[in-house]
Amino acid sequence: MKVHVDLCLIPMGGDVSVSAEVAACQQIFQRAGLSHQLHAFGTNIEGEWDEVMAAVKACHTEVHQLGRVRVSSTMKIGTRTDREQSLDEKIESVISKI
Amino acid sequence: MKVHVDLCLIPMGGDVSVSAEVAACQQIFQRAGLSHQLHAFGTNIEGEWDEVMAAVKACHTEVHQLGRVRVSSTMKIGTRTDREQSLDEKIESVISKI
Amino acid sequence: MKVHVDLCLIPMGGDVSVSAEVAACQQIFQRAGLSHQLHAFGTNIEGEWDEVMAAVKACHTEVHQLGRVRVSSTMKIGTRTDREQSLDEKIESVISKI
Amino acid sequence: MKVHVDLCLIPMGGDVSVSAEVAACQQIFQRAGLSHQLHAFGTNIEGEWDEVMAAVKACHTEVHQLGRVRVSSTMKIGTRTDREQSLDEKIESVISKI
Lengths: 98, 98, 98, 98
Hints:
The structure is a homotetramer. By secondary structure, chain A is an alpha+beta fold.
């Protein structure tokens, strides 16, 4: 099952800045070979369900290892069985109608 | 790794009512033996990461099998390494301070 | 326009515990006379759009005044024009189908 | 109060495709003169709290007028009092650390 995910991971407590932790997650997606796109409130990722979810788990584990004791993520998950559609095609479909 | 999840699953397209699909997901959590609590905008679930995420995947698969071709979920994910805290304890901690 | 909202407010940085800030938000909903229900990952609120959104703004302002310099909320917003449905009726509709 | 918002609006029921409705919302942000950036799971918007929230309300109203009787949005809301930071600066801060 293919999945589209939008992950916004927030380390709670400690430093107000979270960009180091978000950067560490980007590297996890890169090493996993997952197509991903950073935006100002999260990262969109596409791939096989199990691979994407393994990367999300790796993000939580990594951010804990960086010293953050509490992590709260918000994730959107999209699956469809009628057709395949890439993240880029979702954006193009909207832009074509503006 | 223990996890707290808040899952709000939305079948897109077709019938405006989604309660049948949400009910089917409740049964998935029950069969999985996962502690869970339905609220008006989702279901809170607690358990081991892999077991909870397997149940979330089963929800998407089940809702597709019920005939919904597109499913969009919003999920909150909480992990912490400083201490264990149940879903009930989170609520009690707030109520004690009101 | 009536609205259903699920608000999960997270103060970023500083203390790992956020229950004091969540409790302060509960009091804002109470003083505003808004029907609301705390759960383990947020608070469900129902009412007129402008009143509910004014309360959400008051929550951000209050949490900043409590000394938190950065606040990140996740909010679900539901509106419908086909019929009125309370938060309790949403839950009952699911339970009747389990 | 300045605010950063990530809005993902989902019309429920009816057509599986939602790109027409998302396109209509883009036009609302443009007409309101709000800085905004479409991504594959939503739109990031920055501006004054009241102006941004008025645009979000206009999106719900517009999508109902387009014939969708039920609308469910997920919105992330960020405010901070320590410093101003644009949406672009948030992204650059992460990229500089990868």
